[in-house]
Amino acid sequence: MQLVAEHIDIGTRSPTVLLNESDAAELGVHALERVQLRWGERTAIGIVELTDELVSEGTLGVTRRLGHIEGDVEVSVAPQPDSVYYIRKKLDDIELEADELSQIVRDIYDERLADVELGAYVSATYTNGLSMEETMHLTESMADVGETIAWEVPVIADKHSIGGVAGNRVTPILVPIVAAAGLKIPKTSSRAVTSAAGTADTMEVLCDVAFSVAEIRDIVGKTGGCLVWGGAVNLSPVDDRIIRAETPLSIDPKGQLIASVLSKKKSAGSTNVVVDIPYGEGAKVESLAEARELAEDFNRVGDHLGMAVECAITNGARR
């Protein structure tokens, strides 16, 4: 079916297209199903929403995420990604193979999954957990997608706190100290997952945190360190999309947490990483025993990725 693209000024998290109900019925698609879009030599996948009034028959409503689409567009039904089947497997508590996790990561990156499907993936990893093998494969797959930074020095230091403790702002103090000591520390931080503000959100009150890879190289070359938002530089970009699904639920599954942290560090070129694990009432990790178990998992995945990872276990309940 050939439709004419019309830009609709609506911001969506998925690459959403609007179809008139009549065109959708003729095409045989329903809400939240996928369509293949082809214009000229270019293609994209769109997630369908239906309307009777916002777009007329013969028109394809293109939201901001797909704002680069122009002119006549050939629209056809797209098959359901294999990732949906793998997500159902995980919901049934069946361990996923490396290639299955890699496909889920690739489909998240290519925006082939609807928000509800991504939410189902997050729920599955929260409810049924990830094995150590799954966590290792997932971390590798996430680090392999997007940009990476290579450095000319043998040691790149980094730190990360798993978060969950309000007011814990160690990073803006620690990064300058490490840089002043002569180490390179290109610190990338995330936005909030389970709290009101993450490190990147807090720093953004004081200064810009969105920089390109070239700008990060320049800043670190001049100062020895930086504190930037990882989502702005396409380092492990799948992580940022998963975080968007986790945030409304205020959950951060353990295996996904490890993959999130270490895939970002691997992409940033870090070689030596310190991970702060606060525990106690109100923290993500409730007991010292759980904190020690999580630290061991971080160490094992770090070893698998060729990074030296040390964990600092702190009492978050006293902060």
Overview of this protein structure:
It is a single chain. This protein has 319 residues and is an alpha/beta fold. The chain has 3 domains: 2-77, Barwin-like endoglucanases; 82-144, Transferase, Pyrimidine Nucleoside Phosphorylase, Chain C (Transferase, Pyrimidine Nucleoside Phosphorylase, Chain A, domain 3, Up-down Bundle), CATH 1.20.970.10; 157-318, Pyrimidine Nucleoside Phosphorylase, Chain A, domain 2. Helices cover 39% and strands 21% of the residues. A 6-stranded mixed barrel has the order 1-5-2-4-3-6. Strands 7-10-11 form a 3-stranded parallel sheet, with helices on both faces. Strands 8-9 form a two-stranded parallel ribbon.
Short synopsis of the structure:
The chain is 39% helix and 21% strand. With 319 residues, it is α/β, with parallel strands linked by helices.
Give a quick set of tags describing it.
319 residues; Transferase, Pyrimidine Nucleoside Phosphorylase, Chain A, domain 3; Pyrimidine Nucleoside Phosphorylase, Chain A, domain 2; 3 domains; six-stranded mixed barrel; 11 helices; 11 strands; 21% strand; globular
